């Protein structure tokens, strides 16, 4: 059996699809299944068992001998969440319990970290583990992810194979439930459909013009390919970046969304909300050399390719992956 936590969410549900496509059908999904808006992500997938996240460790104690691998992708992913108790409970303490269980039962583990750990990027975006204690995230969410990375590296007891992945700006199908935290592509698509235009945040940094803030946007299908590869690789434990390796502007993203929809480009700008303005990342770009160095050689979608596939094969057809 393969366990996927956070399974009704965005990336994890796409991973279940990828596992099924490779004939891994004994997938155990773990989540808070009371959140009905996420459940459409799992419809039609081959799933062995649904386990509530609060019952998972009792379940694992009874079934660990049958578990081949754990993908721990469940987390509180709202970057505007200010309640550190919630973040510590779900992102730090729960992850520690998963880690310790994998050590006890000798189960390999891949877990989700985040590019939010890099903060403003003043120390760069290299996944050098020696730099992790020095990173200064811009929000409590980033702190919670970096705190677990630091804790994991400090442990003398480790799963025989483990990997933490610093996800950059992931976009693609199955993010429909995420509301404000969904990718700008989804927000752009909905706005363009509704009124034929889209409004981006202004830049409040003199080094960047409006709309020229840059992020490393990575297509979810590329993310799950890396996850699947790591499950089969099971060597070179550690913490790795997972982005496209190429920063692009929000204008690039928006123009490509208009183009994929066959619509005329019409972009406006508004002030960045004050609650995120001083915690806003103006540039991110994953250094992908470390993952490449251990043998991952598949190419990633360009932004143009990823947006075209997402818009035309999922958003325009109301489809899930």
TrEMBL record:
<feature type="binding site">
    <location>
        <position position="169"/>
    </location>
    <ligand>
        <name>substrate</name>
    </ligand>
</feature>
<dbReference type="GO" id="GO:0097171">
    <property type="term" value="P:ADP-L-glycero-beta-D-manno-heptose biosynthetic process"/>
</dbReference>
<dbReference type="InterPro" id="IPR001509">
    <property type="entry name" value="Epimerase_deHydtase"/>
</dbReference>
<comment type="similarity">
    <text>Belongs to the NAD(P)-dependent epimerase/dehydratase family. HldD subfamily.</text>
</comment>
<feature type="binding site">
    <location>
        <position position="280"/>
    </location>
    <ligand>
        <name>substrate</name>
    </ligand>
</feature>
<dbReference type="InterPro" id="IPR036291">
    <property type="entry name" value="NAD(P)-bd_dom_sf"/>
</dbReference>
<dbReference type="GO" id="GO:0008712">
    <property type="term" value="F:ADP-glyceromanno-heptose 6-epimerase activity"/>
</dbReference>
<dbReference type="GO" id="GO:0050661">
    <property type="term" value="F:NADP binding"/>
</dbReference>
<dbReference type="InterPro" id="IPR011912">
    <property type="entry name" value="Heptose_epim"/>
</dbReference>
<feature type="binding site">
    <location>
        <position position="53"/>
    </location>
    <ligand>
        <name>NADP(+)</name>
    </ligand>
</feature>
<comment type="pathway">
    <text>Nucleotide-sugar biosynthesis; ADP-L-glycero-beta-D-manno-heptose biosynthesis; ADP-L-glycero-beta-D-manno-heptose from D-glycero-beta-D-manno-heptose 7-phosphate: step 4/4.</text>
</comment>
<feature type="binding site">
    <location>
        <position position="170"/>
    </location>
    <ligand>
        <name>NADP(+)</name>
    </ligand>
</feature>
<feature type="binding site">
    <location>
        <position position="187"/>
    </location>
    <ligand>
        <name>substrate</name>
    </ligand>
</feature>
<dbReference type="GO" id="GO:0005975">
    <property type="term" value="P:carbohydrate metabolic process"/>
</dbReference>
<feature type="binding site">
    <location>
        <position position="178"/>
    </location>
    <ligand>
        <name>NADP(+)</name>
    </ligand>
</feature>
<feature type="binding site">
    <location>
        <begin position="10"/>
        <end position="11"/>
    </location>
    <ligand>
        <name>NADP(+)</name>
    </ligand>
</feature>
<feature type="active site" description="Proton acceptor">
    <location>
        <position position="141"/>
    </location>
</feature>
<feature type="binding site">
    <location>
        <begin position="31"/>
        <end position="32"/>
    </location>
    <ligand>
        <name>NADP(+)</name>
    </ligand>
</feature>
<dbReference type="Pfam" id="PF01370">
    <property type="entry name" value="Epimerase"/>
</dbReference>
<protein>
    <recommendedName>
        <fullName>ADP-L-glycero-D-manno-heptose-6-epimerase</fullName>
        <ecNumber>5.1.3.20</ecNumber>
    </recommendedName>
</protein>
<comment type="function">
    <text>Catalyzes the interconversion between ADP-D-glycero-beta-D-manno-heptose and ADP-L-glycero-beta-D-manno-heptose via an epimerization at carbon 6 of the heptose.</text>
</comment>
<feature type="active site" description="Proton acceptor">
    <location>
        <position position="178"/>
    </location>
</feature>
<feature type="binding site">
    <location>
        <position position="38"/>
    </location>
    <ligand>
        <name>NADP(+)</name>
    </ligand>
</feature>
<comment type="subunit">
    <text>Homopentamer.</text>
</comment>
<feature type="domain" description="NAD-dependent epimerase/dehydratase">
    <location>
        <begin position="2"/>
        <end position="243"/>
    </location>
</feature>
<feature type="binding site">
    <location>
        <position position="145"/>
    </location>
    <ligand>
        <name>NADP(+)</name>
    </ligand>
</feature>
<feature type="binding site">
    <location>
        <begin position="73"/>
        <end position="77"/>
    </location>
    <ligand>
        <name>NADP(+)</name>
    </ligand>
</feature>
<feature type="binding site">
    <location>
        <position position="215"/>
    </location>
    <ligand>
        <name>substrate</name>
    </ligand>
</feature>
<keyword id="KW-0521">NADP</keyword>
<feature type="binding site">
    <location>
        <position position="180"/>
    </location>
    <ligand>
        <name>substrate</name>
    </ligand>
</feature>
<keyword id="KW-0119">Carbohydrate metabolism</keyword>
<keyword id="KW-0413">Isomerase</keyword>
<feature type="binding site">
    <location>
        <begin position="201"/>
        <end position="204"/>
    </location>
    <ligand>
        <name>substrate</name>
    </ligand>
</feature>
